Amino acid sequence: MRAIGPLDQRVWRALAEVEDPEMPINIVDLGLVYGVHVDRGRVRVDLTFTAMGCPATDLLVADIRDRLAAEPGVLSVELNVVWNPPWTAARLSAAGRQTLIAWGLAV
Question: If one looks up domain 6-102 in CATH, what number appears?
Fold first, then answer.
């Protein structure tokens, strides 16, 4: 297994700055990011969405690309959308769960 380097850490922090356009939560705490792979400035993010046909998909993809492309050291960004395993509320982080509860959403 490869050690997590400084760029990997910055990519994860950058992803945590990307908010879901429909909910007051970032995509990391929402559990949409399944994996991050960084190789000499090439970044691949494995992610999912809360539902197929999500109306915010294009906006979210653009936000992720834009945010990662702005990160120093990132040369290219590939987004790999996966549907298996499907997203469930069990993927929420503790902070994400608390945020949604504070907004009055049942999780």
Answer: 3.30.300.130
pLDDT tens track for 19-52: 998 888 999 999 999 999 999 999 999 999 999 8
Owner of token pair 């090439």? 42
CB-based contact 20:95 (threshold 8 Å): no
> Which sequence spans correspond to the domains of the chain?
6-102
Contact between 97 and 107 under an 8 Å Cβ cutoff? The reply is yes
Residue with tokens 């915010």: 56
Angle, helices 57-69 vs 6-15, to 10°: value is 140
Written as one letter, the residue type at 84 is N
Q: How many residues does the chain have?
A: 107
Question: Could you tell me the pLDDT band of residue 1, with boundaries at 50, 70 and 90?
Answer: low
Residue with tokens 């991050």: 36
Q: Note the pTM of the prediction, 2 decimals.
A: 0.91
